[in-house]
Amino acid sequence: MSTDAANGDSDPAVTVTPAAAEEALSLLEGEGMDTDVAGLRLFVQQGGCAGLSYGMRFDTEAEEDDTVMEFHGLRVFVDPASRNYIGGSTLDYESGLQAKGFHVENPNVVSECGCGESFRT
Question: By C-alpha distance, which of 79, 22, 27 is closest to 54?
C-alpha cells in the first residue's frame, strides 16, 4: 500500500476540497464506520455513453496496492488502474439550487457525454 500525504506529496492521485471531505466524513460516520481506517474509494469503471464513468463507495480499509491519501481528515483510496485515468483530479461537493452531490474535476478528460456522467481520456 502506498501512501500520499495531502500536504507532502507533489503529485497526489487526487485532491479533495474541504466541502467534499466534510460531506464524505459525515456520511461515513452516519454509516457507523471508523474514519481512522475506513475511507472513500474513488475509482473509474467501464460504462456510460463516453466509455468510462466515475464510481465512489465507502470501504472499511484500503487494499494492498491502493494509493492512500488523507484530506481534511478523510482517507481516500485509489487503485492503480483508476489512478491512470484520474491522476490530478479534484473531488468537490456542490450543494446549489440545481445540483447537489460530488463532482470530479478531471484534467485528463478530452470529452464528456451530454449528461456529464461519463468521459473519455
Answer: 79
